[in-house]
Inverse folding.
């Protein structure tokens, strides 16, 4: 025991980094963990054992080799299948959803999505938290924290939703305070965190999706309405001095274009979102499904065959490319990940989008930036959970202190 204890003391500072390596899939075995942490095998072993004791990861007791891999056998590491979870909630233009998300960005359970948003934030957040609390009761999982994604810039340190433009909410609603009050009332006594949905989706893509390994990751995405952007620098969200950075939706991409709710004209927000595509193709929004689903389905089904849909799609691709080129010139990212309808535009004609970016960016350098589709199905929910998981990733031992 004495030996284990002293090794663990040396490895204590490595617990957080070790958990993050397993959480993001970068340490599938104890041998890789040893190398990545730059510690001795004994220390890595003690660290892995401690994380397993905390119920966060599993260590395969029998060393094995992965199929086709070279080198000596090593103990496999994985996030614990039945470990604790974060309560994640997302509110968007057309509704809201609650889920439980474990380490590794794994969605463990989801409540049925609701398809209307009440003008009172307290009503909506009360319902979504109640849905999450119901999932916790059904699954019996331990909850380590809660995260909420909203389609608005979230001002820090106040935690207020400054511009819920496509929601019937008052500007400046104190969403974090309301979210925490709802958690307490629902009998889920954990800390609640809030963030902008595209920011959170970018964080999730960086840790678990198409952004893995990027040092300067730019994400641009539509929600069901509007357009947002986010920048992840060296693994951390760049949110600016008060949480409001990367409001890319209000870049002008057509000075003669549609009036925007911000007071300007022809913003990316109104020229490249799902409603813009439907309008450009001469289609009326139908009653079934979100605008995002309708616009995505239109490209998926009719882009190859319908001239009006093809022209509309190309028009949006060109405007998106113009916006991306401006961002590339300012931010010099090493990777761009596109979500929502922008993902569908990229998949429809990637060479066209890349050509517009290259043509409009300085020295044509934009042509060398990788532009990829996002890969996570519920990036904002997974990202909301990342906010909740962050204190545990920073200090896994805090879990032992708070355990009953
Ligand atoms: Zn605007």
């Amino acid at each position: 025991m004495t030996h284990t204890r002293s090794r663990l003391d040396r490895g204590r500072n490595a617990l957080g980094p070790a958990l993050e390596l397993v959480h993001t899939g970068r340490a599938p075995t104890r041998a890789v963990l040893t190398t990545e942490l730059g510690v001795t095998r004994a220390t890595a072993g003690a660290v892995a054992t401690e994380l397993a004791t905390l119920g966060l990861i599993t260590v395969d007791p029998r060393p094995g080799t992965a199929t086709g891999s070279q080198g000596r056998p090593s103990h496999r590491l994985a996030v614990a299948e039945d470990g604790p979870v974060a309560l994640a909630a997302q509110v968007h233009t057309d509704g809201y959803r609650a889920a439980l998300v474990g380490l590794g960005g794994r969605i463990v359970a989801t409540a049925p999505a609701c398809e209307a948003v009440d003008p009172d934030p307290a009503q909506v957040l009360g319902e979504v938290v109640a849905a999450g609390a119901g999932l916790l009761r059904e699954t019996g999982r331990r909850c380590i924290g809660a995260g909420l994604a909203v389609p608005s810039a979230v001002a820090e340190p106040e935690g207020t939703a400054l511009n819920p433009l496509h929601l019937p909410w008052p500007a400046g609603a104190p969403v974090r305070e309301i979210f925490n009050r709802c958690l307490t009332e629902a009998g889920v006594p954990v800390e609640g965190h809030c963030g902008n949905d595209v920011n959170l989706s970018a964080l999730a893509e960086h840790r678990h999706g198409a952004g893995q390994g990027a040092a300067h990751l730019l994400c641009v995405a539509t929600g069901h309405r509007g357009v947002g952007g986010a920048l992840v620098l060296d693994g951390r969200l760049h949110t600016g001095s008060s949480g409001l950075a990367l409001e890319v939706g209000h870049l002008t991409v057509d000075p003669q274009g549609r009036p925007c709710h911000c007071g300007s004209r022809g913003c990316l927000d109104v020229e490249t979102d799902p409603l813009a595509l439907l309008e450009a193709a001469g289609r009326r929004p139908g009653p079934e499904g979100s605008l995002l689903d309708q616009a995505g389905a239109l490209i998926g089904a009719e882009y190859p065959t319908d001239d009006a849909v093809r022209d509309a799609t190309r028009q949006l691709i060109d405007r998106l490319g113009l916006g991306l080129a401006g961002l590339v010139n300012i931010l010099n990212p090493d990777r761009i990940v596109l979500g929502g309808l922008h993902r569908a535009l990229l998949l429809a004609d990637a060479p066209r989008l890349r050509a517009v970016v290259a043509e409009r960016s300085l020295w044509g350098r934009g042509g060398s930036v990788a532009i990829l589709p996002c890969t996570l199905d519920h990036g904002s929910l997974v990202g909301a959970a990342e906010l909740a998981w962050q204190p545990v990733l920073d200090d896994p031992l805090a879990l032992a202190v708070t355990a009953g």
